[in-house]
Amino acid sequence: MASQLPLSLSQYLLGLLGVQVSVSYKNRIPDPDYPVIVVSNHRSFMDAPLLIHALQQPVRIACHHYMGQTPLLKDMVQLLGCFPLGSPSQRSKQFLTQAQSFLQRRQWVGLFPEGTSPMIQATQPNQITAFGRGFAHLAFRVNMPNLAVLPVCIASLSEKVHHTFPLKTLHFFDPSEPLFNQSGLQPIVTYQRTHVLIGHPYWITAEHYQHYQGKQAKTLVNELTQHCHTEISTLLAESV
Prior knowledge:
The protein is of the alpha/beta class.
């Protein structure tokens, strides 16, 4: 069973920062004993503790490589149960290996398929960008019965944006990330009021695994990716 420390720490951090959180559609959250891949939109460093708090479940959330290289930050992500992605040369293989291992131990895995871009380039609260397909490939490769992919929408109702340190500072911790080469200051979003809305889970069946090959694999991946993007987009529009 996963440690409850991430849940306690998430609640403490959100309370310390004075974030008001409301959660809708809790009835859509799968039973904790099922393996679950959580997929969410992403604009703030607060998204990981928000997800853990809203789901009332420790979630092993994948985070950017630099977060595992930065002093103090790497300790925090470790306590929250997050796992930093590897360097580009080994990122994909390492991610699949780690994520499959967590799921096989019935630990939930969380991903932000928009990637790093919304954290670097300031976006509006109701904005959602294109999704990467890594989470969908993971879902069809893990080959586990009763696996659910759960889309979750984090809606910011009130926030502040702080422009802090030069983006190029992050290049020191991860020279491989091209986004860290641009000029300007790192925007950091701090939520004041948030609404977390749970989407309809997408259940992976034995039939899905059988068809995850050739051209059919691409169709399945696109379908799952679109399902999660549409669910979150719809919930984001509902929240305002």
